[in-house]
Amino acid sequence: MNIKTTELLCTSHSWDGALLPHYPIEKSEIRACRMVFPAGEKTGWHHHTVINFGIVEQGDLTIVCEDGTERTFHEGETLVEVVGTIHRGENRGKKPVILNMFYVATPDVEVTIQHPEIH
Fold it and tell me: Which of 23, 54, 71, 78 is most exposed, with minimal Cβ within 10 Å?
């Protein structure tokens, strides 16, 4: 066989070093999303209620937590998002960021809670 497998990610921690929460026993659901961030674009402040991870397909994505902690993920890098921590994503570069994210959830759960009150 000529199939090559490369493990991209295997961790029990989010990018900030926090231990991931226990996985629910309930009926599970996997969600996959592609996000395109134009140059200079930022998400609103938000937090996630479930474990989620992804890969930066193009560009450089900076994730900034409400407390000022930040990390930039570059093209081809994987990331495990923070759970329960308010943060936002920023494209500080000159080309669009393409981000593919995968959420481990249960049906009908809100995976992202927006915080429009934070500026």
Answer: 23
